[in-house]
Amino acid sequence: MHEISIKITINEKIYDRSILPNTLLIDFLREELGLTGTHVGCDTSQCGACMVLHNNAAIKACSILVAQLNNQEITTIEHLQKDDKLHPMQNAFRNNHGLQCGFCTPGMIMSAISLINENNSPTEEEIRKHLEGNLCRCTGYQNIVKSIEEGAKDMREKG
Amino acid sequence: MYNFNFHSPNSIEEAINIYNSSEEPKFLAGGMTLLASMKQRLIAPSDIIDLRNIKDLSEVSSKENHITIGSLCTHSEISNNVIIKNKIKNLAKLANGIGDPAVRKMGTIGGSIANSDPAADWPAAILALKANIKTNNRIILNRDLFTGMFETSLEENEIITSIEIQVPDFFDYIKFPNPASRYAIVGIAIAKYDNNVIVTVSGASHKPFIADSLSESLSKNFSSKIPLKTISLDELNEDIHASAEYRAHLIDVLTKKIINNN
Ligand SMILES: Cc1cc2nc3c(=O)[nH]c(=O)nc-3n(C[C@H](O)[C@H](O)[C@H](O)COP(=O)(O)OP(=O)(O)OC[C@H]3O[C@@H](n4cnc5c(N)ncnc54)[C@H](O)[C@@H]3O)c2cc1C
Ligand code: FES
Ligand code: FES
Fold first, then answer.
1. Which of A10, A64, B30, B232 is 20–30 Å from B220 (CA)?
2. Which of B4, B31, B39 sits opposite A21 (nearest CB)?
3. How far is it, in rounded angstroms, from Cα A45 to Cα A26?
4. pTM value?
């Protein structure tokens, strides 16, 4: 099988690479680029641990090929912090004890930001519905929802 | 996942040419089903032909009393589309009930129909509505499309380009979702054009089907006084999620729920 050349922007950095067509985005991020903040939970598009942003919306990196993203842009959890300051959503998860083991957290945060990009003041019900694609085995979701409510407020205030 | 050659054609003609000159090719839309099967090594295509760079396939338009939905429109695009919300708002609601937000961002209506999963939501809706499926070389009537479990009357090298739907007087779809996957354990679609009502069922059999006696009864009298248990248990699935009897009951309950919500 032939390698293909792709150009993909990840966290505002352009990568021109030759890859095997069957390279999944998650493997490219973690193995090729060493961006291990994006996690692999189920590898079957159920758990959301692998979520990244594409056109401001969360997608599952375990279920898309890098080849499908030629000339496109991806943002991972590593790119949220700016000038040593946590993103308001990251901060809100810290303030509200929105994580325990932390395995689901990168996906939760990307999913939460994706929700706020669409709807900047979601109700509790909308937050819970939005989290259908994110599984957490520790927290029982209560503090995750609280975190997202606070994160949404801070994102609104910071524009 | 085994390896393959990857192609991203810009036109239908190019996509078909690549298909015809490849060994065991597959078209790729959102990949939500196809990539999962490839990861499990259930299939090993020699060539993957990505349809997402073919421009005209992602548009929604309306003309008189018809709407046309491009096959590459994602569930998420459909749920937010103004034309669809204005003309058949419960189609937007259906789209917004598929899987989870990330699945809806990638998965497409064309992929869902071509895949013909008996528990999927689009097929039941398309079967209930007056709808035609347009491909690169013909128009297929909705009733002729879904031939079996994961089977359609599409040729292997045929691409669905759009779905054309006549705007009904009434349409709704609700499902009793599997709590893990959100696929329908039973889903009911009802479409009404004047006094002609069609009720279809997803999730309950090897393919979506028209519930004849329910359709007949609602055509005569559009009320929740429907005949009960009209579908033979032999036609219904039994699995770890639900018995055939339970599914038969859900068919009646969901049908009444739609009428009562109306
Ligand atoms: C976690 C999860 C939950 C889900 N929940 C639901 C649910 O609740 N309800 C529901 O209905 N579905 C559900 N789905 C399925 C989802 O709707 C998929 O989007 C859909 O089944 C396939 O669409 P796709 O665009 O991803 O197609 P792909 O996976 O890219 O392709 C599927 C098949 O269709 C063929 N194909 C694709 N496009 C075309 C075309 N235009 N012409 C001809 N052939 C084509 C491909 O060759 C392939 O064989 C779920 C999926 C996941 C992963
Ligand atoms: S690892 Fe991608 S959804 Fe679980
Ligand atoms: S904090 Fe452990 S899985 Fe969510």
1. B232
2. B4
3. 12
4. 0.97
